[in-house]
Amino acid sequence: MISKDPDLAMKMMALLAGRLRILVNKIEELSLKEAPARVASYLLLLRSSHDAPTFRLELPKGQIAFYLGTIQETLSRILKRFIEDGLIEMNGKEITVLDPDGLQEVADEGR
To answer: pTM (2 decimals)?
Structure first.
């Protein structure tokens, strides 16, 4: 099928290359960045995907912590520190990014 349709082969390679790029970025995040930088990057990603400064955490904190390569207690401490530093505001599962530039600075640490 691939030999008969070279466009299909190119589309498959593009898809696989995209997935590989995502995996490489995830490995880089987990191995090179400290937990606060990973959490900040995650919050900025959520903010941009919702196209608004306020968004709701759809996953439980335990799953978010696992995804970020940390534990729930560490995630909670980091979020509390971000609140104290005026970077974010939390109301239950709703987060508002107050200082996206400050959060970006934290996300860029360790690069």
So the answer is: 0.73
